[in-house]
TrEMBL record, chain A:
LUD domain: residues covered: 111-210
Alphabetical list of InterPro entries matching this protein: FTHF_cligase-like_sf, LUD_dom, NagB/RpiA_transferase-like
Protein name, per record: Lactate utilization protein C
Gene3D superfamilies: NagB/RpiA/CoA transferase-like (3.40.50.10420)
Superkingdom field: Bacteria
From TrEMBL, chain B:
Pfam families: Fer4_8, LUD_dom, LutB_C
PANTHER family: LACTATE UTILIZATION PROTEIN B (PTHR47153)
NCBIfam families given in the database record: LutB/LldF family L-lactate oxidation iron-sulfur protein
Keyword Lyase assigned: no
UniProt keyword list: 4Fe-4S, Electron transport, Iron, Iron-sulfur, Metal-binding, Repeat, Transport
Positions of the UniProt region annotated as Disordered: 453-502
Every 4Fe-4S ferredoxin-type domain range: 315-384
Annotated ranges, domain LUD: 71-297
Protein name: Iron-sulfur cluster-binding protein
Organism, scientific name: Streptomyces bathyalis
GO BP term (any one): lactate metabolic process
Length: 215, 502
């Protein structure tokens, strides 16, 4: 007998107390928890996202879509970044001419990626109540690894349409078939005497630029 | 420490020495109190916590009551998304499957993200025997591995180590595992983390095989979820060509939507954060993004035995948040190693003896590693009634009875060393069933109360019990005698007290 049959057989024998005609859906689940913890205007949602991102030590910037290229250029220049990896969906004018733009190619080795200074991506959705940005590997976000290996990540969030209140509302917008990375602040550890240290393996600096028509 | 749980002494003996370790107790007190206070705050932020907790418990109950259905659904979904599913009835089989999969890749080094399931199966030791080096990449797990040590907390496994010890371990051991620590390494946490970053980056960038556990598996979609803080998880899940995930069969949630409950309750209960820094989800394989081969090893290893026990089953709801450790007065003083298992604290006291059976002295002692204060139940985000299960397991230790062991219904004998307890309980039962004898006994006790010793140094098995307990001095008058004396004449039942006592 295969291990699959053994395990499933054990499961069935273990559940002898469950009525045979009970369907999975009949085991009741109360769903009276909230889908969001407050009613907010677009502006309030944006403010809460900015506040919670900053609370987890992400650097938060705000600007209009028109100001975005200049703002990205400023941030890259402030770090002295000479090379930046950007997925194909990132517009050409978001990467300043003096910085080398490296395409997100599957053939790029982890070592090559490690040699780059920064990464610029967009996101799929951002969650105000938790200060989380979610990447789901679309054209403007790229492969999961590019937002991981470089030490400096710039992520652009478009307000108001990409910001939701809560975790339940974010999940409803996401497709589980796509690989996802949920990011709340930079990489962090508290493993040594519970002292929080930013950045062990992921980017040590996370900068989030929230663009909105009303700055 | 030798890096293995085999041959650990019983909880009372292990705790007797660990409670004398002042550094351990100081670290634990600091850690548990800090996280406890922060957790309460994080939970308070959500006005619907009670509803989320009830939903979480109900979702897990639904999963467990129909586990066969969800396992098959999960298998179909994972396979459909390009993954391969393997089934392991015990630790040995899981380790063999993983070792064979690694061998097929031709690699002899693997990187691992912290996984309780593989700790439970002793995977690292099994791989070492097969000539494969497994590198732990979580900072705390790295400290534990380099120090040839064992984890002592679910969430912060190296909490028993101070910064100066960590510096010494890094200085002495890193070089023999890969990139050495800088010569002038100090004990500043940021510098220690930087040394770990450099040491491990070399491993990540060259890794061809990654091994993980998972926090959740979504039956409907075949999606796996890993929550973490450092990014080592993301490294292991996305950079290698082959990913092998070893996951307990109970870690299923029915639908993608159900994650909305657990992704709210898990981070707040464990690290007291609104959300942990990184959550990764993947469904099978994705072209040119992440590993091209994905293997899921579904692990039983005592879980179906636990499932068969209708009282103990609820332990399988556990989402490994560690909130129960941080509020437990026994864990805070004894430390994680005393539990002799990857699962310490209150959840360990009910999970370990169920997963492993209660044949060993250690496992039979674990249901007693508690004061039954109930704090663990209060904080549990999936409402596991840990005290209820503890009492249930104590009964099994003392009385024996039927239980499922490795899928077989068996009658287990009472554990050794409880003969005296059983004798006392039998005597108590006889006394309660014979009210006249009880009344006489109480009167004798009252009249001789001045002769009652404060301590009763029992010989043999009773000694551990009597050593730490004072004997309460009997009351000058029993309740019945008092009732009879003060109200006796007016009460209808007074004349037949013996008959009412039952």
């Amino acid at each position: 007998m295969s291990s699959r049959d053994v395990v499933l057989g054990r499961v069935r024998r273990a559940l002898a107390d469950v009525p045979r005609d009970e369907g999975p859906e009949e085991a009741a689940v109360p769903r009276d928890y909230w889908t969001s913890h407050a009613e907010r205007t677009d502006a309030q949602r944006l403010d809460l996202l900015a506040e919670n991102l900053a609370d987890y030590r992400a650097l938060v910037h705000r600007c209009t879509p028109a100001q975005l290229p200049a703002r990205i250029a400023e941030l890259l220049s402030a770090r002295g970044a000479r090379s930046v990896v950007a997925p194909p969906g990132i517009p050409a004018d978001w990467v300043p001419a003096e910085v080398e733009r490296v395409a997100d190619e599957p053939s790029m080795t982890p070592h090559e990626l490690d040699a780059l200074d920064s990464v610029v991506t967009c996101c799929a959705v951002a969650i105000a109540e938790t200060g989380t940005i979610v990447l789901d590997a679309r054209e403007d976000q790229g492969r999961r690894r590019i937002s991981l290996v470089p030490d400096h990540h710039i992520c652009v969030v478009r307000a108001p349409e990409q910001i939701v209140d809560s975790v339940p509302r974010a999940l409803g917008r996401l497709d589980p078939a796509r690989p996802q990375t949920w990011i709340s602040g930079p990489s962090a550890t508290s493993d040594i005497e519970l002292d929080r240290v930013e950045g062990v393996h992921g980017p040590r600096t996370l900068e989030v630029i929230i663009t909105s028509p009303e700055p | 420490m030798s890096g293995t749980y085999l041959g650990m002494p019983s909880f009372p003996r292990a705790a007797a020495s660990s409670t004398r370790d002042m550094r351990l107790r100081g670290n634990l007190r600091h850690a548990t109190h800090t996280i406890r206070a922060k957790r309460a705050q994080a939970v308070e932020e959500l006005g619907d916590w009670a509803q989320l907790r009830a939903a979480g418990a109900a979702l897990k109950n639904r999963t467990l009551r129909h586990l066969d259905h969800y396992l098959e659904q999960l298998e179909t979904a994972v396979t459909g998304a390009g993954g391969q599913v393997h089934w392991a009835r015990d630790a040995e089989e899981a380790n063999r499957i993983v070792a064979d999969l690694v061998r097929e890749t031709g690699e002899s080094d693997v990187v691992k993200v912290k996984s309780m399931a593989t700790q439970e199966t002793g995977l690292n030791e099994a791989l070492a025997k097969a000539g494969i080096s497994a590198y732990e990449t979580d900072l705390a797990e790295l400290i534990v591995q380099l120090g040839d040590d064992l984890p002592s907390h679910i969430l912060v496994p190296a909490i028993h180590r101070n910064r100066d010890q960590i510096r010494d371990i890094f200085r002495e051991k890193m070089g023999s595992w890969g990139r050495a620590a800088p010569k002038n390494l100090s004990d500043d946490p940021a510098e220690l983390a930087e040394a770990a970053r450099l040491h491990l980056r070399e491993k990540f960038l060259n890794a061809k095989v990654g091994i993980s556990g998972a926090n959740f598996m979504v039956a409907e979609t075949g999606t796996l979820v890993v929550v973490e803080s450092e990014g080592n998880g993301r490294m292991c899940l996305t950079l290698p060509e082959t990913l092998i995930s070893v996951v307990g069969i109970e870690k299923i949630v029915p639908t993608w939507q159900d994650l909305e409950v657990f992704l709210q309750t898990l981070p707040r209960s464990s690290t007291a954060e609104r959300m942990n820094p990184y959550t990764s989800t993947w469904t099978g394989t994705t072209d040119e993004d992440g590993p091209s081969a994905f293997h899921l090893v579904l692990l039983d290893n005592g879980r179906t035995d636990t499932l068969a026990d209708t009282v103990g089953r609820q332990a399988l709801r556990c989402i490994r948040c560690s909130a129960c450790l941080n509020v437990c007065p026994v864990y805070e003083r004894a430390g994680g190693h005393a539990y002799g298992s990857p699962y310490p604290g209150p959840i360990g006291a009910i999970l370990t003896p169920q997963l492993r059976g209660m044949q060993s002295e250690l496992d039979a002692s674990l249901p007693y590693a508690s004061s039954l204060c109930g704090a663990c139940y209060e904080v549990c985000p999936v409402a596991i009634d840990i005290p209820e299960v503890l009492v249930h397991l104590r009964e099994r230790v003392v009385e024996g009875g039927t239980a499922t062991v490795r899928g077989q219904r068996t009658t287990i004998k009472p554990a050794k060393g409880h003969a005296a307890e059983r004798a006392v309980m039998r005597a108590a039962r006889w006394t309660f069933e014979h009210p006249r004898a009880m009344r006489t006994g109480q009167r004798i006790a009252s009249r001789t109360r001045r002769l009652t010793p404060r301590r009763l140094p029992l010989p043999g098995p009773g000694r551990a019990w009597s050593d730490s307990r004072d004997i309460p001095r009997p009351a000058p008058e029993s309740f019945r005698d008092w009732w009879r004396r003060t109200r006796g004449s007016g009460s209808a039942g007074s004349g037949r007290e013996g008959g009412d006592a039952r």
